[in-house]
Specification:
The complex is a heterodimer of chains A (250) and B (303). Chain A contains 8 helices and 10 strands. In chain B, helix 2 runs antiparallel to helix 7 and helix 7 packs parallel to helix 11. Classes of the chains: A alpha/beta (250), B alpha+beta (303). The complex binds adenosine-5'-triphosphate and magnesium ion.
Chain lengths: 250, 303
């Protein structure tokens, strides 16, 4: 479903170059549930932005369903995005729209018929347990509830892939568990889920229970991948080599 | 695009206009004023054209003859006039014919006949109506006419024609210049308005992009907003200018004098110009607001 082949992403700023990802290769299968962990600045968000086509790789290929995202025509980008649903730390709800309208809005702009919207919005909201709060404004909901609206919105158009960037970053710990469980439930119906987070404890607890894959990024590289134990060894070897080079240089 | 999407997007455009009502009013005000200025220039121009044309049609210099000329003398005057280069038409009008014309023009009731009343002693002189090939040559021809033996007087409303021709030219150029400047002003105004809407909706636009809205879908409401502003301004401007012009025509009709008579005595009637104004305003609003919108969202909606 998702393929990264020797992907390097360098952000060019005025004064310097920022290497966000360095020669990252990985494959995520359809129906997988992947947690992406890593220190701040490790390149987690960049990893997701490449999938969302918000950024282009400096080198290498990012492909979704065999489609090389770097070769996709600008005109086709929106249609590619419709195969995904995304959730962010800051919810990104429109404050002037009700819960219902927020979900309906996202469906409307992808040219879905009014009839489908009318049946699908309540369904999506019932999946996240908010069917009785459809007419509230986002301000009138707790953080966890707002994030559930965002999840409902990401699900409403029936994507094959859900991408979440620190979805529990603004939510208190008990609610975080709820949201994560929600993603696990979504994964049950064979939707691929990629969740970026830095909540190690929560991740390890869930991964143990649901047998999720955990990818750890460090300094733009894959430092660990529970599905591929050799990755950690390679990374350790690489780091050791660099260290010795540095020592030698001194 | 689905019909429901279309109506939704149009609704969104109008919603944006209401949400930014202050800016919408301000920009529509400026647009309306621009259109009114263009319209006023057009009306002035078209009336000057009409007056020049009227005067041109009056390309008839009346040459009055001395009383009691013999036939031979009259014939001599006739050939003298014809000999002047640039004269293309010479018509003799006898005193009887002058009387006849006044009789029919005054249109007294059927019982009173001017012709009958003055039949014995006609108070008019015979004259020639002289037509020249080009108004520009007239100033050279008039003194030659006056120099002919037996000619007492001339009447030519064409002295004004030169002034008018240059005025017509000046107004045409000024009109084009003004249309250009005001078009630019209108584009800038709409560009700004839409930019403000885009800015105030940047969050929604970001979300739209993320969920996979096409550029066309994202842009459409802004076009609706821009073009609606343009068309509403056109409607307002049309109403104002037609009303004002109607009032002006009536006022002009009631305040006639020798000078206004010389130019035909009436303005171009409203029914001959209103549809030109309406169509031109609508096109002006549609095209310029379209351009203004396109230029403002191109920069701000890069996906
Ligand atoms: N637009 C940008 N321009 C320049 N540098 C950037 C840009 N975005 C990210 N970076 C840099 O790239 C690196 C990786 O950033 P990224 O946002 O992917 O990290 P992250 O793992 O998501 O961190 P966090 O956990 O803090 O969100 C960082 O060093 C960051 O400073
Ligand atoms: Mg991040």
């Amino acid at each position: 479903m998702i393929d990264f082949e020797h992907v390097t992403k360098i952000y060019e700023t005025k004064n310097d170059e920022n290497v966000a990802l360095e020669d990252v290769s990985l494959h995520i299968d359809e129906g997988e549930f992947v947690f992406v962990l890593g220190h701040s600045g490790a390149g987690k968000s960049t990893f997701l932005k490449l999938m969302l086509m918000e950024e282009k790789p400096t080198e290498g290929v990012v492909a979704i369903n065999g489609q090389d995202l770097t070769r996709i025509k600008r005109r086709k980008v929106p249609y590619m995005r419709r195969q995904m649903g995304c959730v962010f730390q800051d919810f990104r709800l429109i404050p002037t729209m009700t819960v219902y309208e927020n979900v309906a809005f996202a469906m409307r702009v992808t040219n879905i018929s009014t009839k489908t919207i009318k049946s699908r919005v309540p369904f999506a909201l019932s999946l996240v347990g908010l069917e009785d709060k459809m007419d509230r404004l986002p301000d009138e909901l707790s953080g966890g509830e707002q994030q559930r609206v965002a999840v409902a919105r990401a699900l409403a158009h029936g994507p094959k892939l859900i991408i979440a960037d620190e979805p529990t970053g603004n939510i208190d710990p008990e609610m975080s568990m709820d949201i994560m469980q929600l993603f696990e439930a979504i994964n049950k119906v064979h939707i691929t889920v990629v969740v970026v987070t830095h909540e190690h404890e929560l991740v390890h607890k869930l991964a143990a229970k649901y047998n999720n894959r955990i990818i750890t990024l460090a300094h733009g590289q894959i430092a660990d991948d529970t599905a591929h134990p050799e990755v950690a060894r390679e990374y350790a070897a690489r780091m050791a080599e660099r260290e010795s080079e540095e020592v030698y240089a001194e | 695009m689905r019909f429901s999407s279309f109506t939704y997007l149009v609704g969104q455009g109008w919603h944006n206009m209401r949400a930014n009502r202050l800016m919408t009013f301000a920009s529509m005000g400026v647009l309306t004023v621009c259109m009114l200025l263009v319209g006023a220039a057009f009306l002035v121009g078209i009336n000057i054209d009409a007056m020049v044309e009227y005067i041109g049609e009056q390309n008839q210099t009346i040459v009055y003859l001395q009383d009691g000329l013999t036939e031979e003398q009259t014939a001599a005057v006739d050939s003298a006039i014809r000999a002047i280069p640039g004269v293309v038409g010479v018509t003799y009008v006898s005193p009887e014919e002058v009387l006849q014309r006044y009789d029919s023009e005054l249109q007294l009731d059927s019982r009173t006949s001017l012709a009958a009343a003055f039949a014995d002693d006609i108070p008019f002189d015979a004259n020639y109506i002289v037509v020249v090939d080009d108004l520009k040559n007239l100033s050279g021809i008039l003194p030659q006419l006056l120099a002919i033996d037996g000619v007492t007087d001339l009447r030519s409303p064409l002295e004004l024609s030169e002034v008018f021709l240059s005025l017509q030219r000046a107004i045409t150029y000024a009109g084009y210049g003004m249309v250009g400047v005001l078009a630019l002003v209108s584009i800038v105004i709409i560009n700004n308005t839409i930019r403000i809407t885009v800015f105030s909706r940047r969050k929604e636009i970001g979300i739209m992009k993320l969920v996979g809205a096409t550029n066309g879908f994202i842009r459409f409401p802004f076009f609706v907003e821009g073009v609606t502003s343009g068309l509403l301004s056109a409607a307002i401007a049309s109403g104002i200018i037609c009303g004002a012009y109607y009032a002006l025509i009536r006022w002009y009709g009631e305040h006639q004098n020798n000078i206004t008579q010389m130019f035909g005595g009436s303005l171009v009637p409203l029914q001959e110009v209103w549809y030109i104004l309406v169509v031109a305003f609508a096109a002006f609003g549609f095209v310029l607001c379209g351009i203004g919108t396109a230029t403002s969202i191109r920069k701000h909606l890069n996906v």
